[in-house]
Amino acid sequence: MNLVGQQIRLRSLEIEDLDFLYTIENDESFWEISGTQSPFSKDILKEYIQNAKQDISEVGQYRFVISSEKDDTPLGLIDLFDFSAQHSRAGVGIIVHPDHQNKGFGSEALSLLISYCTYELRLHQLYADVLENNTVSIRLFEKHGFQKVGIKKDWIYFHKSFKNEIILQLILDES
What we know:
alpha+beta; Aminopeptidase; 6 helices; about 35% strand; globular
């Protein structure tokens, strides 16, 4: 699977992405949003990559690497999860490596993913759960038409405090 934009492409995880995935998954600054509680070994992540090419309708999720269109350098990850063919929806999560943030890569990746979900997967809706204080992510999703539809009070517990999580939703078609 290869979705190409102007600056980036979305592609499948490859074994060559192991070091990048290891860096992202073990970056404690992301654990609050990912729910991770302890580091991952390279062996576990290697096994994950080897199994990551399964069909989304079978496993309910798919992880894309956001990579540079110029040289294929991994820049981040964008995930579809909680996929439901029955209800024609999926959740979206996105992480851009701190070295590559604020350069439009996340926005372009989300745009490509929305198009893929609309025209290839034929989904009716996407949703995202974002911490209330993550204004950058909220603006990113709103820029692409997602609307705030709810709030989960005290939903995330991290570093001895509870945080609210905003639910954002995008209806992809009107049928």
